[in-house]
Amino acid sequence: MENKLLDDSPSTALIWDEKHLKALLRLHHYPIHLIQVEPWQTWIERHGGAGRVLDHLQAQPLHPNQQQVLNIVLAHPGVSARLYSSKLNISSSAYFFRLKDLSRTLLLRLNAWNSETPQVLSKSTIPTNLPSMLTPLIGAHKSLADVAAILRRPGTRMLTLTGTGGVGKTRLAIAVGAALLENFPDGVFFIPLETVNDPGLLVTQIARSLNLGTVGAQSLLEALKSYLRERQMLLILDNFEQLIQGTQTVTDLLQAAGNLKVLVTSREALNLYGEIRFTVPELTRPDPGSLPSVSQLGQWPALDLFVQRVQARHPDFVVNEANLEAIVDICDRLDGLPLALELAAAQVRLLAPDHALPQLEHRLRTLRDISHDRPLRQRTMWDAINWSYQLLPEPEKAMLRRLAIFGREWSLEAARDVCQMDDLLAGLEELVDKNLLRYVGQGEDGQARFQMLHPIREYALEQLADSAEMLPTQRRHAVRFLELVQRAEPAIGTPDQLHWLRRIRQERENLQIALQWMLDQAETEMAFKLLGAVWRYYNMLNFGDEIKLWMDRALTQGAHLKIAARVKTLWGAYWLTVRQNDHSKSLPLAEEGLRIARELEDLRLTGLLLQCMVSELFYRNQYDEASQAIEESLRIFLRLGDQDEIAWALGHRSALFSRRGDLVKSRETLEESLSIFRANGNDWAVEQVLRDLALLLLQQGDLEQVKIVLEESLMLSEKMGKSMGVGWTLNLQGRLALQRSDFVAARELFEKAQVIFQQIGDQTALVNNLEYLNRPELIEKSMLKD
User: Fold this and answer.
1) pTM of the model
2) Which domain holds residue 436?
3) 278 compared with 323, residue with greater pLDDT
C-alpha cells in the first residue's frame, strides 16, 4: 500500500486492511492464520500480543453503535453474521453497515498506533475545511490551551467563545480546531455565518459546509441529524450573534449526535443548557505609567503584534527609546484588541507612532462622547475602525462603503459594476494596504478577489445606510448578480457548464444577498428572473434545498403575477419538489405553470411544463395522457429547434415505450436522444442518459453492453464531480454483478453507492439501494469473500 505508518518509523508501510482486521476480530470466514504471517505477526508481538491489541481497541472512544458491535463480536468469535445481527436485534444489512463503519474507525486506530505513542492520528487523513492562517497566532497560546482542554473533556458538548468584536474569537477558534484535529476522527468543520441573517438558513449553511446535499423527502435538518449521529466531529459556528433565534437548531443537533461537539464564536452567549462560556481576553500590554525596556517587548503580546504588523509593511522599522512610549500608549488606548492593533499598525506608514497617538487620542475621546448608545464592549473597536476610516480620502471612503454590500468576498469585475468609480484597482490596493480589505487570490473567472473583515463590514454598512447611496448600491449589486446568472444559464448543457458551475458556487453568498434585497424591496419579478436562471446550477451543486426556500418565498409573494419569469420559477420548483419525492406538492406547481404558460402563449415554457406533467402522469400510471403530453412537447421543441429539449422529450418517449413493454422501441428512441446530446457536447445529459440506457439493457439481458455503457457513465460522472451520478452508476454496476451471480462484487458496489447516497442525503436513492443490499442471496453468499 502507498500510505505510511503514522509512527516514528517512516519506512514502515500501513499493514492493516479490512481483511486482516476481521481476522484479528476472529470473524467468520476470516481465518486466524491470515495474521500469523509477516508482517502482522511481528506487529502484534511488538504491541504486546493479540489480547493486548484487542484490549486497546476496546478502550478506544467509540460511538455506542460501534461499541455494541465490537463487544458482541469479541464476546462470540467466529459465529455467523446472522447470530450477531440477532443478538444486536437489527437486520443483517444494518449489521453489515455498522460493521463497515466500525472497521473504518478501528483501521484508523490500528494504523496510527505504535508502542511508544498509542494514539496518534495523521492530520492529513482527517477531513476538515479549516481556513489556512497566513500569520502566526500571537499572545493567545494560553487561551488556545485552555479552550482545547475544555473541549477535550468528555462531558463538554458545547463551548461559546465570547468577547468584543475584533478580539480574535474567530482566529482563536480556527487555531483550536487545528489543534484538536486528532481528537475528532470524522473531522473539524468551520461554518462561517457572518453573512447569514435568517435563522432558517442555518441548517443549510451547516449542510453546505459539510458537503451534505439534497435529501429527498427527508427534511434537511433530519438528514443533518442522521449524518452527524454516528460521527465524532467538531463544528465551529463562527459569528453566531445575528442568529440567536436559531439556537434550537444547535440543541437539536447536539441531542441527536452523542459524539458531536460545537464551538461557537459570538459577541453574546447562546444561553443554552450545557453551554460552557469562555471570554476571549484582549492581548496583555504594559501600564503606560511603567514602561518596559525595549528588550522586554516580546513579553507583551499587544506590543509584539503591533510591532510585527508594522514591520511586515516597513521591514526597517525598529522600536527604540524614542518611540516606545507612543507604541505602549497606542496599545493601551486600543485595549489590546488584535484587529484594532492591526488597523493602527497600517497607519504607521502615514504617521510615525508618536504622531499617530495624538490623532488616535483625539478620535477616541470625541467618538466616546457621541456614542453613548453603543454598548461599551463595541466602542473601542468602533473607534479604531472609524479612526482608520476618517483618515481615508473621500473616494476611498465611498469605495469602502459601497463594497460593504457584498458578501464574504467579491471579484474585481463585480466591484467595478457596483462601485462605479474611477481608479478602482488603485483604490482597492490602498484599502488592502491599510488593512481594511484583504486580497484573497484569483477566482474561478481569473479575476482578483477581495474580502472585508466582518467588524469592518458592519461599520461600513452603517456608513452606507446613513448616506444616500444605500438603495442605488443595493440595486447595482442585485442587477450585477442577476446578469451573472443570466449569462451562466445558456451554458447549461455545453462544455462551459463546469466553469459556470464553479462560479455560481463561489458567488453563493452574493446571490443570497441579492435575493434577500429583491424580495424585501418587492422586486419580485427580478427575483423570479434570478431564480429561474440559477436553479439548475443549484440543483447540480446539491444546493436544491436552499434555492427551494427562496422559490417558495417568491412564489408566495408574487402569487398574483402571471408572467414568464414566474412560470420559469414554477418549472424549477416542480423539479426540486420531485427530487424531494413530494408529489402532493409537485402536481399543483406543474398545473399552475402550464396554465399560465398557455395563457401567455409562450411555446418554450409550455413545452417545459408539459414535460413536468409527463413526469406526474407517469407517477400516476396515466400513460395515454402522458403520451399526448410527450408528443405535444416534442412538436413544440421541433418547431423551436431546441435540440436539448428535443432529446429530453425523446427520453420521455423512450420511458413510455418501456413502461408499455416495448423495449426495442424504447432502446431505439433512447439511443436517438443520446446521439443528440453527444452532438451538442452535453456531457451532463449524456451521463444521465447512459444510465437510463444501461437500465434498459439490463432488462434486455445485454450484459456485455451494459458493462461498456456503465464504464463510460462512471468516467463522465467522476470527471464532472457528479456524486449522484457516481452513486447511481455504482448501483447499476451492482445490479449487473447480481445478474452475473457475483454476489461479493455486488455487495461491495452497493455498499459504495450507499456511502455516497448517505453523504448527499438522497432518501429515494438510499431506499432503492438498500432493497438490493437486503437481498437474501447477497447477504448470505457475499460473506464467502476472503
Assistant:
1) 0.69
2) 404-496
3) 278
